[in-house]
Amino acid sequence: MKMNTRSKFLPRLKKAAISLLLLIAGFVQVIAQGDGPRTFLLAPKGVWGVNPKPTFLDQNFLPSGDILVKNAHINVNVFPTTFFHTIGIGGRFAQLMVMVNPGNANGSVEAEVPGFPTPQFEATGFGDGFIGLKIGLNDAPALNLAEFAKHAPVPSMTAYFRIWYSGTYDADQPLNLGTNRTTFEMGLPMAIPIGHNTKKPTWFEMYPSIRVYTSNNNPTLITQADKSQQLPLFLLENHLTHNITTKLWIGGDLRYQYGGALELDGVNQDNKVNILGGSVSAGYQLLPFLGLSANYGGILAGENGARSEMFRLSAVFVYANTKKFKQPEN
Length: 330
Hints:
This protein is mostly beta strands. It has a single domain, classed as Beta Barrel (Porin), CATH 2.40.160. Helix content is 10%, strand content 50%. It has a 17-stranded antiparallel beta sheet that branches. Strands 13-16-17 form a 3-stranded antiparallel beta sheet, with no helix packed on it. A hairpin with a 2-residue loop joins strand 4 and strand 5. The radius of gyration is 22 Å and the shape is elongated.
């Protein structure tokens, strides 16, 4: 009788685990230009994953995405890849992340002197990457796969800390993928389920955050400055997504940014960011361990002539050891 119960239990448990991994693969996405939809939902502990996300931008921002250059036209092609692992810290959900960001960029700056040729620039290497930590604050317990499968979705809040390190940088080059500085980001992601349909869920996510920057004590020669400093930048990211089927979801996104003006040798460059961006998203769970999604959007309204258009793809691979599930005792 005991052996029979276990033999019936294991297939159900494995099926639940596979379904849960399918869910996680659609949820875990991290990258610049906004983290993206279904990034801030909870996941069980013990999950490993990798998220390559090729991103293509046409904008008048430097490749880092947060320094506005009013009269520039810059194309950025980057392939940020995030490695992540979920754990428990003090009984709370936590996630560790590391992101590397190879790519290239090219662009031009309109000359202010009539008849002067427009300078052309290009750069290859690595953009700024980050190391990050999420940890649960409210209704965000650390659960294994079996426990998580039984846990009803409820509104949750986590704390999110990221340190962005500089990518490739050369002060002799006018255009760089890296920023030659460190960025500290702190925020409070929130995820709110709408309705009670767990097979076709609807989620609202909100992420208020702030970024503060260290100084760049070796700005590019084109600035003719000894020091550059960016003022703090406030961001508010929002996502509303809904599963049309158990595998296919769609969504709409809004992202507001304010602040971040650049100072060169203490002189404000009048390039404060005050913009509202929007995008549409769609995702599909191709395999239990592989989720795919796409995102297209740009700036809807803003000041200082800010302009950006973005298209990105995402693939999320996840793995969890289902052999760690405990079998029930009779």
